[in-house]
Amino acid sequence: MTTKVPALRNLTPELCQKLQREMLAACQTVADAYGLSVVDGGMQDMNLRAGFEFGVRVGIPLSDGSIFERDKAMFELMAESYGLAPEDFGREFSAGNETFRITGIEPRRPKYLIKAERLTDRRGFKFSPENVAMYLKAAKGAG
User: Fold this and answer.
1) What confidence tens digit (pLDDT) does each residue in 33-84 have?
2) Which pTM value belongs to this model?
3) What pLDDT score was predicted for residue 143?
4) Which end of the chain is more exposed for a tag (fewer CB within 10 A), N or C?
5) Structural domain ending residue among the three candidates 21, 41, 68
6) How far apart are CA 116 and CA 127, in angstroms?
7) How confident is the model over 78-128, as pLDDT tens digits?
C-alpha cells in the first residue's frame, strides 16, 4: 500500500534543486542504457508558486565524453571576428553587481550578439562584444 504525499502549496529553491538533481540522475540512468551522454542545462526558470523548468541535453558522446554543443561551436568559430577569443566561451564576467557566463553568439543580431546567463538564476541576457571584452579584461586584471 502506498502513502499519498500531500500536495505542496509552494516550492523552495532547495526543493527545486533537489528535484532537478534527482530528475537529472534518472535521465542519466536511461541515457546510460543506450550509451548516450547527458548534459545538465541547469535551472532556467523558477516560480516558487507554480513550478520550475530546467534543461537536459542528451547526445552521442564525443571521444572526450562530452556531447556536441552548437552554441559552443558557433562561438569558437565566430569569436575572433568580434574581438573575443574562442576560449572565452563559458568564461564569467561581472557587470554591475551581477555575474554572468558567456553561453553563445548570435551573429544575426545587429549589436547585442553575445549571449550570457546570469549565474544567480541562469536567466539569459544579451551583450555587445565590446562590453564583454571590456568586462573580461577587467575580470582578468582583478584576478
Assistant:
1) 999 999 888 877 778 888 888 889 899 998 988 899 899 999 999 999 999 9
2) 0.72
3) 59
4) N
5) 68
6) 7
7) 999 999 999 999 999 999 999 999 999 999 998 999 999 998 877 889 999
Return the C-alpha cell found at 37.
Answer: 551522454
Phi, psi for 98 (deg, rounded to 5): -120, 155
3-state secondary structure of 118: strand
Q: Contact 31/37 with Cβ under 8 angstroms?
A: yes
Total number of residues shown for the chain = 143
Q: Is 117 helix (H, G, I), strand (E, B) or coil?
A: strand
CA Rg, the chain, in Å?
18
Determine contact, residues 79/86, Cβ cutoff 8 Å.
yes
Buried b / exposed e along 53-67 (16+ C-beta atoms within 10 A):
ebebeeeeeeeeeee
Query: 86 and 47, same structural domain?
Result: no
Instruction: State whether 62 and 80 are in the same domain.
Output: no
